[in-house]
Every structure is written in structure tokens, then in C-alpha cells.
Amino acid sequence: MNNFNFPKLSIFIATYNRSSKLKRVIEFVHMDALKNGIRDKIEIIISDNNSVDQTQNILKSFKEKNFINDFFKNNNNIGSDKNMLTACWRTKADFVWLLCDDDIPKDGAIGEILEIISKNNSKTSLIYLNNTKEYESGLLRRGAIYSKDNGGILEASKCIKLVKDELITASSLVFHREALHGETTRKFGYSGRFSAPLCIALDAISINRNAFITPEPLLRYIYGDTSEWSHHWYSIWIINIPMIFIWSSKNYGFDLNSYSPSELTREKAQAFLKMIINPRFWPINSLDWIWILLHIIKSKKSIYNIFKTFLITNLLGKIIKKFYS
Questions:
Q1: Average pLDDT value for residue range 80-109
Q2: N or C: which end of the chain has fewer CB within 10 A?
Q3: pLDDT class for 183, splitting at 50, 70, 90?
Q4: How far apart are CA 184 and CA 251, in angstroms?
């Protein structure tokens, strides 16, 4: 493989102790780019968060075979968010794809991304990859997030309304590297909230006040993640995501009138109640608890859904039993 200094796209994969899945995605990305004659237009960079499995052996082998351009190993586990954010100094291209080690691109996705970058380089700083959600077996859990009629460049508020919480999906984010220095990322990205991808996405949207939404799914999001962040999902979903959306919207002037990130749907109400009865979530920062409670009080729909969920799932009885057993 020829050496080059300025790839058009950096595919950055942050990994930790998932060597078999990492091997799968590296092989797919390299071979897909090679097959389509675009391997010299991308770089594949791996950031290992101090794995103790076979990750390093696999990476050394792939480097020797030119499947990857480079890899790094952190001296200790710095957390998933900070590991992702090392893309700031470990990549070269103007556009970075924050691909997770357990997700798989669709055939030809790299070529389509490069074409979007070529046609829209100065027009947008975020390319959001429509995706399907699948089990490891290939069984479909959810179809595309939105229909192909919604594709193309969308104004910031329309993009947020369309994609909503899914903006936190790292593997769906191809962004201009300037977003890694954005205000939301600096404030929340390094705070241990497991929400760096959302911060980057909102900062990227703020640059040109828009995002390019791919009409067709270009990514297979593999459902069933068991990494560290998955154990914090309820607090990410109920507290971190709404907090970051609201702060960023005020900072950048995004219109959230058509999307209320802190409002509790029935599913979110159920998650909130589970947080209350699960001691694992009690140590959450007390200010965070106050923040979400204040936002719940402001929303009649949230209060309604909490009581409705009480009745439907019998969580009230479980809470009483929990405190009096």
C-alpha cells in the first residue's frame, strides 16, 4: 500500500476487549475499500483502550498486512468517551468516521460516504448514516430510522427532530474534525457521561447549521452491546442525552420546540422508575437527579406517563416491596 499524508476519510475505531468483533469490522472495511478501488483514499486507525485479550496481536498482524494504517494502545483504560476523542490527534483526514468495533457498514458504504464528502465538503460538517438495528444473528430488530424521502441536507432543527436520541449512535457519525474542538464536546465529552458521540454530532451540526442525512441505510447497528456504557444506559437516556441537547440548543440557538428531549415517553418513564428502585443508579450526581426531577415537573405528559406506567407494570408494588422488605 502506498504511503499517503492526506486521506479523504479517517475511519477511527475505538476498541476495548472485543478482538473477534474488531477483527470482523477491520476485515470488512479494508476489503470493501480495496474491492471498490478506494483504499488509498481512506485511513483505518485503531485506538485500543488497554485491552487484555488478543487485540494487540490482531492489530500487529493487520498492520503488517496493511489492513490498517496505524494503531495505538492507551497506557490505561481512559474510558470509552476519552478513547473516542483521541481521534482528535490520531487521525489525519478532514472527515472522521467514528465506527464502533461491533457494528458493520453496508456494502459500498465507504464509497458512498466519500462521494457525499466530495459533493458537500463545504456545505455540511456532519453526515449522519441512516442505519438498521440488527441482532448478531442478522435478524432485524428495527428497520431504517427514517424513510429515504428525508435524505439530503437538512437544517439543524429538522435534523434533530428527525434523528432525535439516535444522534448518540457513534457509528452513524461522519463529521468534520473541527467538531472535536466544539463547545459541547469540551463541556460534556470528557465528563464521563458516555455521551461524547452526541456532543460531537451537535457541535458538527452547529458549524454549518445543518447535517447531511443519508437516504438509504449505510450501517448495520448490531444490537446487544454489553460494554461498560450499556450498564449506564438508563441514566444516559434519561439524564445525559436531554441535558446535553438542552444545553447545546441554548448555546447554539437550535429550535427544540418540535422535540422535547427531557419529556418522558412511556418507555422512558419505565426506565426512570427502574432507576429509582435500582440501588446501582442511586450514586448518580445529586444535581443530576434534581435536574431531571425539575424537568419532569415541567411536563404534564411526563407525569402522566409515570403514573400510567405505575399502573400497567405494577412498579408501584415493586417499589413498596423494595423499601419495606
A1: 97
A2: C
A3: very high
A4: 9
Separation of alpha carbons 91 and 76, rounded Å: 20
- Rounded CA-CA distance 162/176 in Å is 21
- In angstroms, the CA 212 to CA 227 distance is 29
| Domains of the chain, earliest start first | 9-226 (3.90.550.10), 233-324 (no CATH)
Cα–Cα distance for residue pair 308/319, rounded to 1 Å? 15
pTM: 0.92
Cell of 272: 426512570
How far is residue 325's CA from residue 316's CA, in Å, rounded to a whole number?
14
Q: Is the pLDDT of residue 2 over 60?
A: no
Instruction: Please identify which residue in the block is written with the cell numbers 482528535.
Output: 88
Average pLDDT value over all residues in the chain:
91
pLDDT in tens, 106-156: 999 999 999 999 999 899 999 999 999 999 888 998 899 888 888 999 999
pLDDT tens figures, 10-31: 999 999 999 999 999 999 999 9
Given the C-alpha cell 437550535, which residue does it identify? 254
Rounded distance, CA 19 to CA 179, Å? 29
Find out whether 51 and 15 touch, Cβ atoms under 8 Å.
Answer: yes
Rg of the chain on CA atoms, in Å: 20
- Rounded to whole angstroms, the Cα distance separating 278 from 228 reads 17
Alpha helices for the chain (secondary structure H): 19-35, 55-64, 80-85, 87-90, 109-120, 156-163, 183-184, 196-208, 233-235, 241-252, 266-277, 286-298, 300-313, 315-324
